[in-house]
Amino acid sequence: MSRAERRRPIRRNPLSERSFFFDAGDGHRLHVVLWGKPGGVPVVFLHGGPGSGCNPGQRALFDPERHFVVFVDQRGAGQSLPRRSRAANTTAHLIGDLEALRRHLNLGRWLVVGGSWGATLGLAYAQAHPAAVSGLALRAVFLGTRAELEAAFLTRLCTFYPRLFTAFQSLAGSEDPLTAIWQQILHPDPQIHRPAAFLWYDMERAMSELRPGSEAPITRPDDAPLPATPFMEASYFLNDCYLSPGQILQNAPRLAGLPGILVQSRFDLLCPPEGTARLAALWPGAEIRMVEAAGHSLSDPGVSAALALAIADLSAG
To answer: Which reactions is this enzyme annotated as catalysing (predicted)?
Structure first.
């Protein structure tokens, strides 16, 4: 079977002719949703995590009369198969998948939209394939570094959510608690990975929302379903997001000539303004749009409105 034949949609969702599975190779089939106006402004939406997947609510960012949006669940994420698979799952694989999908859909340049990890992947993709990108609308820039994760979970978590931090220290029990909890999440024993995955999920939730409503780990029944994202994040974060040291900033000159709008929340505890400012200083085509009194989450009305406007502005003309 030829490479082209392997990449034909192999199963269509009966509920929508615009949904299909894309054979990315290595045993991975990516769930793809095509939404909007055929022949409209091409857009690819990159979800966060890594590992979270796309959801229908994200369509509100786009104009169905203007945009043709490709929502793709990355390897092991969302509805892609095999679920939660970490085999052959690196940033380089995801970049290759995006370019193969763009070519499969016969699209020219597309607008790259993403936030948090989606911004990391969008930047890495645009740096690898600048000729395939018309612009970037990014939210909550994450440069994919260990230093950012340490600042978030070893400093800001302790400052703003001390009860969660105490639980984190107690569970991790190590001089390097980040490495310890990621290793616990990936441990095959459910008695070890379940509490670690749930605690990581609770810490991220609290750090993501301006008003999280809980400052302590949530008590759950023994049969509560496990969240998927912690497992993929643990794999990526243990491996420095499969990026070389300082890769995103070092390769920023490759973005020269590409327009970009960087939506940044003032009180984002996971991806604070510092990272966005560092990137913009090396990317003359980038504009920072600050959202005051907002946190990390895309569900914040101010954040979603700012990202939707950035998408519209980059789609004009």
So the answer is: Release of N-terminal proline from a peptide
